[in-house]
Structure formats: structure tokens, C-alpha cells
Amino acid sequence: MAEAWDAVINGNCLEVMAGLAPESVDLIFADPPYWMRTSGELQRVEGTVFDGVDDAWDQFSELSAYEAFTREWLSACRRVLKPHGSIWVIGGMQCIHTIGAIMQDLGFWIVNDVVWRKSNPTPNFHGTRLTNSHETLIWATKSKDSKYTFNYKTARELNIDTVSPTDYESGVRKQMGSIWTFPVCSGSERLKNASGKKLHSTQKPLALLLRVVAISSRYGDLVLDPFGGTMTTGVASKILGRHYLMIEQDEEYCDAGVARLAMTAPEDGPIAHAAYDERPPRAPMASMIEEGFFTVGEPFYLRDGREIATLVADGKLSFEGEALDMHTLAAKARGAKATRLNGFDVWHVKRDGELVPIKDIREQYREHVRRLAE
Ligand SMILES: C[S@@+](CC[C@H](N)C(=O)[O-])C[C@H]1O[C@@H](n2cnc3c(N)ncnc32)[C@H](O)[C@@H]1O
């Protein structure tokens, strides 16, 4: 079967994945059955029944059956994943250790395990153990050598877990960590069935999926989810301009997910395009001179206004009869111990009589190059 892009396929993921081309998928997000092993009715302290996970799709006869199933779907994922793609698997305490062990056994290389800290967890109603207030996501590649996508700066931009709202507002950004706080999916985000009850017992928060997709894939990539449920992964992918292939065995979930996807609009923007991680266009001095951003013979100044050198045709600076590259001369002019300093942090030119850092001129040149590329 050829890759069906932007599709929801109603079927068993093992069978569907067997029909996909090998090494055809950039990113996989899998939210498999957790095998919760709940028994009997779970009651709140005041006696009302808590609507937990007791679905038929979450039942397994014994550990060996769950292990066999896990090995099978993970092997199928491994076959269709591109060599430099990556996979995320989410699970609770009931299953994540089994899954993690099998992933390593199959050769996956764990990049991170992320704790999804639930800001509104279900309490342990009878106080018999700790509130189970997190789930774990394993992020892995096919091998240790995979050159997987990680939009590092986009992740920094999205990190509101370790930066206070006030600091974030004033521009503070910090490296994203492996503990993410999101509320459990509820309210209007939660899909309901015809009788107004929650349609799916384990619908994941869209915010969680948006983060996963944004930081570990590129615009236009293909994202696969073998356990689609309400199609949260597809929705996040569509919003962020990725293609999606969603597999789900339950027809009712598929129908609801298709409707949800139809109502979803892409949100084009810097997060979708990982613009923060874009490498700026190259800006060689010779090209900037050629394009008129600098003029041969113009003086180069230090920040304090001292005129030190003049620009020569090949982008070097003429200083006391010698042509030096701007970084070496920057160190010399500053009297630095290092033999070279970044000249773009040191040199200024004059525009309309005012000193302007040459890195600002370089930025203008890059904008010009970007515009030409559009
Ligand atoms: C934990 S839920 C996924 C929920 C989803 N992430 C969401 O946000 O709605 C697991 C889903 O996998 C589906 N499923 C279980 N076994 C499957 C299989 N072999 N093939 C396809 N779907 C399967 C179940 O019907 C269930 O909807």
C-alpha cells in the first residue's frame, strides 16, 4: 500500500502497518492500551461511580500476552520508521516499564523519558496509596546514531514549565526540561458521545501532542499514530502543518476523529515552521559588498567611535598597511588575549552619520536574502 497521507484508517494497526512502505514515516506517536487491570467498580469516597478505563480494547489475559502484543506493534513501528525518525510512546505505571524494556530489546535508543505531570490528577479516592499524578513518555530513535529532529529553540520558546509567566512575558527563555505540566483533557476539549458521556476514556490533551509534534518533527513531515483514538495526534499534526496517518480499530472513534479533524484548521506560524531553529542564511562579506550592504573603502569603527580600519574588496580590513580578517583585527583592536574575536560583535560602520553595529547590517542582508528566496 502506498503511504496514505492525511488519512484516518479504521483497522487493526498490525495489519495496516504491514501494508506500509518500510522507512516511510518521520515521527510516530503511540498511545497504546495500558492494560490498566482495573477490577470492579471504582467509587469515589461519597459513593458515586468513577468512570475509569475498563474498555474491551484494554483487556489482556496475562503479562505474556501484553508483552507479545507490545513487541509486535513496536516491531511494526520500527519497520516503517525512517532511519532518522523518532518515536514517542506514552504509558502509565502499569505498562511503561514493560514497553521501555521491549523497546530497548528491539534496538530503539532512548533519547528522553518525559514525565507528564497532571495538574488535575484523579485522586486516590480511598487513600490507599499515592495519587497517581503522572504518566511517562519515552522518546526514542531507531539507533544511537540516528540524526533525529529536535527543534531545540522551538522547545525553549514553548517552555513555560520552568519560566514564570512574568519572566516569560519579559523575554526570558530556558531550555525545556523533561517534566511537563498539563491538565488532563476535560471540558469542551473532551469529545462526548450521543448521550453526553465522554466518548473515549483516555483522550490525551491536545497541548501535550502539540508539544511533541512541534519539537520532534519538521513542517511537512509524516506523523503516524497506530492507536489513534479520538485522533489527537492527527489534530496536532494538522495544526502544525505535518501530514498524518492515523490508525484506529474502533469505528465510532474513527468517525468522531474524522469530524474533529475536519473542524481543525492549520495554524501557520513560527512554531509550526520551527522558525526559531532555522539556520540564518550565510552572509559572506564579499556577497554583502557585492549587494551594496557595505562599500569598499568605508571606515570600520569600535563601539566608542574610534576609527580603526577600512574595508577592502575581499572583505578583509586594511589596518596600518596590512589586510587582516575582521576577527583577527577585532582581537587586536580590543587588546584581547584571544587571537580572534567575533568581528560581528565588535565592528561598527556609519549610516546617516550614526554608528551601526555591522551585525545589524548583516541582519538586513539576511532579510534581503530571505525575501529573494520567497
Ligand atoms: C489509549 S487509546 C489512544 C487515545 C488517543 N491518544 C486519544 O488522544 O484519543 C488507545 C486506542 O487504541 C485503539 N486500539 C487498541 N488496539 C488496537 C489495534 N490493534 N489497532 C488499532 N487500534 C487499536 C483503541 O481502540 C483505543 O482507541
Features:
374 residues; alpha/beta; Rossmann fold; 2 domains; 8-stranded mixed beta sheet; 14 strands; binds S-adenosylmethionine
Chart the SSEs and their pairings.
Elements: E1 7-10, H1 13-18, E2 25-30, H2 63-80, E3 81-91, H3 96-106, E4 109-118, E5 134-141, H4 152-158, H5 165-169, E6 179-182, H6 206-216, E7 222-225, H7 232-239, E8 243-248, H8 251-262, H9 285-290, E9 299-301, E10 307-311, E11 317-319, E12 322-324, H10 326-334, E13 348-351, E14 354-357, H11 358-373
Parallel strand pairs: 1-8, 2-3, 2-7, 4-6, 7-8
Antiparallel strand pairs: 3-5, 4-5, 9-10, 10-11, 11-12, 13-14
Bound molecules: S-adenosylmethionine.
What is the residue-averaged pLDDT?
A: 94
How far apart are the termini?
Answer: 35 Å
Name of the CATH homologous superfamily of the largest domain: Vaccinia Virus protein VP39
Shape, per Cα inertia axes:
elongated
Which hetero ligands occur in this complex?
S-adenosylmethionine
Question: Quick one: CATH class of the largest domain?
Answer: Alpha Beta
Rg over alpha carbons: 27 Å
Domains, number = 2
Can you tell me about this structure?
- There is one protein chain.
- The chain is α/β, with parallel strands linked by helices and 374 residues long.
- The chain has 2 domains: 7-277, Vaccinia Virus protein VP39 (Rossmann fold, 3-Layer(aba) Sandwich); 285-373.
- Helices cover 29% and strands 20% of the residues.
- The protein is built from 11 helices and 14 strands.
- It has helices spanning 13-18, 63-80, 96-106, 152-158, 165-169, 206-216, 232-239, 251-262, 285-290, 326-334, 358-373; strands at residues 7-10, 25-30, 81-91, 109-118, 134-141, 179-182, 222-225, 243-248, 299-301, 307-311, 317-319, 322-324, 348-351, 354-357.
- The strands form 3 sheets. The protein has an 8-stranded mixed β-sheet with strand order 1-8-7-2-3-5-4-6, with helices on both faces. A 4-stranded antiparallel β-sheet has the order 9-10-11-12.
- A hairpin with a 5-residue loop joins strand 9 (299-301) and strand 10 (307-311).
- Helix 2 crosses helix 3 (96-106) and helix 6 crosses helix 7.
- The protein is elongated.
- The two termini are 35 Å apart.
- The mean pLDDT is 94.
- S-adenosylmethionine binds next to helix 1 and strand 8.
